[in-house]
Amino acid sequence: MLKEKAKVMNEKDMERALKRMSHEILEKNQGLEGMVLVGIQRRGVYLANRLRDIFFSLESFKIPAGVLDITLYRDDLTLLHDQPVVHSTAIPEDLNARKILLVDDVLYTGRTIRAALDALMDLGRPSCVQLAVLIDRGHRELPIHPDFVGRNVPTSRNETVEVRVKELDGLDEVVICEREGF
Q: Hey, which of 22, 25, 47, 129 would disulfide with 100, CB 3.0 to 4.6 Å?
């Protein structure tokens, strides 16, 4: 059982972080030409769509955006569920020789991103892949590092970070939860 321990971001904080990240992405890439946004199912998709909207408001450029399901690429698939729920993958452009901006909500061990990279490589050969995450909570098990971070949130291993988005959860916030009994 999880118990909410602390709220680390509210709606305004999330909006500010995404706007700051968009400016950093634009600056590092000197624009958006040749880039494809790819959100990792589930909440990464909504964050990618928000970044896409911010890019449009800043540059009047509609960047292609796709959706990536990594369920069948996970190395812990058999540990998670007897019957995994597979969501859709929809990539709007050929990924060959394109810059990919991979978007996820929380970076933890790095295993989700490893699975996403495997899935992307099955879809094409991008010129580069950059990673944008709303929350980096540490505890990496793989040598994966985000290029763009909304907020670093130090946690213990008995805590979880929940990103809630209006589209799925009815509100925008990031909370730290703790397993009861710890």
A: 129
Write the CA distances from 118 to 56, 114, 162, integer angstroms.
29, 6, 25
What's 82's DSSP letter? S
Phi and psi, residue 176, nearest 5°: -100, 130
DSSP state of 73: G
* Better pLDDT: 144 or 180: 144
Q: Is 133 exposed, middle or buried (0-12, 13-18, 19+ CB in 10 A)?
A: buried
Q: What is the pLDDT of residues 55-82, one digit of tens each?
A: 999 999 999 999 999 988 877 655 555 6
Q: What is residue 137's three-state secondary structure?
A: coil
Give the whole-angstrom CA distance, residue 40 versus residue 48: 9
CATH number attached to the domain at 12-28+35-73+92-157: 3.40.50.2020
